[in-house]
């Protein structure tokens, strides 16, 4: 990386952190710290909600997802706008009316302190783990491609966030997220323009989409009820709605964003802004991944995008075999390039069809070579992670973008990591302080509770860094975060829905139902993991939500009208 | 100490509630006297707009799928 890139990266990050610190030094109390003094406008909330959800994983993993599997992942977000409307109509007015600091405080009003504590603890477990992964995901990738030390990178990202989140609370998170979203949108748009510019002269956007479509990358919608396929229209609309309803309606890292709204209306409008922009934003990020695929139809790409794997196998006894595969791949690439240009030239549909089949066959051969390469990597090191989805986009950034833009794109990735981590540790600190400490140790001064909230924020920052330093690399990082969420979210959402709409259910029955149901959902996940049953993880949200209500109704039936 | 008690903020919120609840109010099962009603706050058009806009996105994706998709 050149010194100009370092300077740009350093300046962007330093400006965001220092600006956040300078603007939010003085906190008057817990209210100021947790809800930012209720001063946020709708567009600040909207950007903050979007920045919280869009972590670095979004920008590293999503283009890689499109590169390998096409645009179908966008269906995952189809339920989100429905959830935004429902939350604006039902959840936000109640939170505002009750003037709660956390979503779980409402459950004490409705049920009892045990249910409030239990849901707060569920949130702390899943969000504590997710916060670690939010830091770890970009760190592992950047350390592999740039040679930076993984542990120090985890500590750097975590510490930068902790500095302004501990001192400035929610207001600092909101302010910095506006700058971060500016950097993210600007950087991604520039990457998109550069990609179009790097394609051969004959290839514009339309031709690029034709090439991608011919190789199955533009199959956006899948209306089948196929449980083997994680992302279909139906799983997106139904499972995605439940996941988004739960995440945005009951996860404190999101609830805290819109509780900072100046008025109820501002909070609702912030969520609606997210509902309008999220699907096109994800489509755009996936489109970048598809354009990267088209780019590598005309340019050389490595057999495995993870440079650590390539270095490792080249230092092993399998280096000669790997080189042979690499040469075969280069030959194939040359043929693919020639045929792709011919495909664009011909007008006759029959000829086009023949060429398309030839290109597909060559791409299939290329995939087989990549599979063989992965086997060699595994032979060289049986613990190596051969899945290189998360490395595709960063490889493109580092090898193709000009000096200056590399620094900016790295700033995009680190900004995204910081923005979501900040919301997470901000919410973890607030929930621990308000729902656990303050609720069970009342009677201290406002100053004391403010200090405690800041201490807990600091502790959760430390825990997140610790989790990041010990986290292993899973199949796909963005999926891992969603899987952890899906295990807990359905259950928590069911508790909230019962609270809002089923007056018959009382505190004790919902408490036991939530406990039993969490065990049930974890069992289903484990059964799927060991392939005893087939259940895509998005459906855990639906099952968890419905099951907790059913169990609570049954327990309540046996309890009678007692609470 | 679990709730904010700033009277000014409460007044702002209440004024807003009163203004907004002029629009449609939907009764839900009474769960507690304090929050027995869920209001369809403010202008409803914004909610229809967000769903409508996303329906247009999906139609657009369907069209792109038809043009460039392979399924």
Can you walk me through this structure?
The complex is a heterodimer of chains A (563) and B (71). Chain A has 563 residues and is mostly helical. Helix content of chain A is 78%, strand content 0%. Chain A contains 21 helices and no strands. In chain A, helix 7 (113-146) crosses helix 18 and helix 14 (319-345) packs antiparallel against helix 15 (349-380). The longest helix of chain A has 49 residues, at 150-198. Chain A is globular and about 75 Å long. The model of chain A has no long low-confidence stretch (mean pLDDT 88). With 71 residues, chain B is mainly alpha-helical. Chain B has two domains: 1-40, no CATH class; 41-71. Chain B is 54% helix and 8% strand. Chain B is built from two helices and two strands. The longest helix of chain B is centred in the last third of the chain and has 24 residues, at 45-68. Chain B is rod-shaped and about 40 Å long. The relative contact order of chain B is 0.09.
Tell me the number of helical segments of chain B per DSSP (H or I, 4 or more residues long): 2
Strand content of chain A: under 5%
The count of domains of chain A is: 2
Separation, N- and C-terminal Cα atoms of chain B: 58 Å
Strand content of chain B: 5-15%
Task: Quickly count the helices of chain A.
Answer: 21
Strand order of the largest sheet of chain B: 1-2
- SSE order of chain B, one letter for each helix or strand: HEEH
**What's the number of domains of chain B?**
2
Low-confidence stretches of chain B: 1-40
How much helicity do the residues of chain A have?
Answer: over 70%
**Rg of chain B computed from alpha carbons, rounded to a whole number of angstroms:** 20 Å
How many beta-strand elements of chain B? Answer: 2
How far apart the termini of chain A lie comes to 64 Å
Unreliable sequence segments of chain A? none
Task: Show the helix and strand layout.
The complex is a heterodimer of chains A (563) and B (71).
Chain A: H1 3-23, H2 30-35, H3 42-53, H4 56-69, H5 80-98, H6 103-110, H7 113-146, H8 150-198, H9 205-214, H10 233-250, H11 252-259, H12 264-298, H13 307-314, H14 319-345, H15 349-380, H16 392-400, H17 405-440, H18 446-470, H19 477-501, H20 507-529, H21 538-559
Helix pairs in contact in A: 1-8, 1-17, 3-8, 3-11, 3-12, 3-17, 4-12, 4-17, 5-10, 5-12, 6-7, 7-8, 7-17, 7-18, 7-19, 7-20, 8-12, 8-17, 8-18, 9-12, 10-11, 10-19, 10-21, 11-17, 14-15, 17-18, 19-20, 19-21, 20-21
Chain B: H1 7-20, E1 25-27, E2 37-39, H2 45-68
Antiparallel strand pairs in B: 1-2
């Amino acid at each position: 990386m050149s010194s100009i890139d370092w300077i740009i990266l350093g300046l962007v990050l330093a400006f965001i952190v220092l600006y956040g610190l300078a603007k939010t030094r003085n906190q008057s109390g817990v209210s100021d710290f947790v809800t930012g003094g209720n001063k946020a406008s709708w567009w600040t909330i909207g950007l903050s909600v979007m920045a919280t959800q869009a972590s670095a994983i979004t920008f590293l993993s999503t283009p890689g997802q499109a590169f390998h599997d096409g645009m179908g992942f966008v269906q995952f977000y189809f339920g989100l706008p429905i959830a935004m409307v429902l939350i604006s109509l039902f959840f936000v007015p109640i939170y505002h009316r009750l003037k709660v600091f956390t979503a779980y405080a409402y459950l004490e009003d409705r049920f009892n302190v045990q249910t409030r504590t239990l849901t707060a603890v569920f949130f702390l477990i899943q969000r504590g783990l997710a916060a670690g992964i939010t830091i770890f995901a970009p760190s592992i990738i950047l350390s592999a491609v740039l040679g930076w030390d993984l542990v120090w990178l985890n500590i750097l990202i975590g510490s930068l966030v902790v500095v302004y989140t501990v001192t400035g609370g929610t207001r600092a998170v909101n302010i910095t997220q506006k700058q971060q979203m500016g950097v993210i949108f600007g950087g991604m748009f520039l990457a998109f323009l550069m990609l179009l510019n790097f394609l051969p002269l004959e290839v514009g956007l339309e031709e690029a989409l034709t090439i991608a479509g011919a190789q199955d990358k533009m199959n956006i919608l899948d209306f089948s009820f196929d449980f083997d396929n994680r992302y279909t229209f139906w799983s997106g609309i139904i499972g995605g709605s439940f996941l988004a309803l739960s995440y945005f309606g009951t996860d404190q890292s999101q609830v805290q964003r819109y509780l900072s709204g100046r008025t109820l209306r501002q909070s609702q409008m912030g969520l609606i802004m997210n509902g309008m922009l999220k699907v096109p934003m994800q489509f755009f990020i996936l489109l970048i991944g598809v354009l990267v695929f088209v780019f590598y139809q005309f340019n050389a790409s490595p057999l495995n995008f993870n440079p650590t794997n390539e270095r490792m196998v080249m230092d092993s006894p399998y280096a000669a075999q790997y080189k042979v595969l690499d040469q075969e791949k280069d030959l194939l690439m040359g043929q693919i390039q020639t045929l792709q240009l011919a495909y664009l030239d011909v007008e006759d549909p029959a000829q086009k069809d023949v060429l398309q089949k030839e290109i597909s066959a060559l791409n299939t051969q290329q995939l087989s070579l990549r599979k063989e390469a992965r086997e060699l990597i595994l032979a060289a090191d049986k613990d190596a992670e051969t899945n290189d989805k998360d490395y595709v986009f960063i490889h493109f950034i580092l090898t193709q973008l000009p000096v200056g833009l590399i620094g900016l794109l790295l700033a995009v990735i680190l900004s995204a990591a910081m923005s979501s981590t900040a919301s997470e540790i901000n919410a973890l600190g607030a929930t621990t302080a308000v729902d656990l400490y303050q609720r069970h140790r009342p009677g201290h001064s406002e100053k004391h509770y403010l200090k405690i909230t800041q201490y807990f924020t600091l502790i959760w920052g430390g825990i997140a860094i610790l989790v990041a330093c010990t986290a292993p690399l899973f199949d796909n990082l963005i999926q891992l975060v969603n899987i952890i969420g899906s295990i807990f979210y359905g259950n928590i959402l069911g508790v909230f829905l019962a609270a809002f709409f089923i007056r018959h259910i009382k505190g004790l029955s919902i408490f036991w139902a939530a406990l039993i149901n969490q065990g049930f959902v974890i069992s289903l996940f484990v059964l799927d993991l060991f392939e005893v049953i087939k259940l895509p993880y998005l459906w855990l949200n639906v099952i968890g939500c419905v099951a907790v209500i059913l169990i609570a109704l049954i327990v309540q039936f046996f309890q009678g009208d007692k609470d | 100490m679990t709730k904010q008690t700033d009277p000014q903020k409460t007044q702002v919120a209440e004024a807003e509630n009163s203004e907004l609840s002029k629009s449609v109010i939907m009764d839900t099962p009474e769960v507690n006297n304090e929050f027995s009603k869920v209001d369809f706050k403010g202008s409803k058009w914004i909610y229809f707009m967000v769903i409508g806009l996303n329906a247009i996105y999906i139609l657009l994706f369907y069209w792109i799928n038809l043009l460039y998709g392979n399924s």
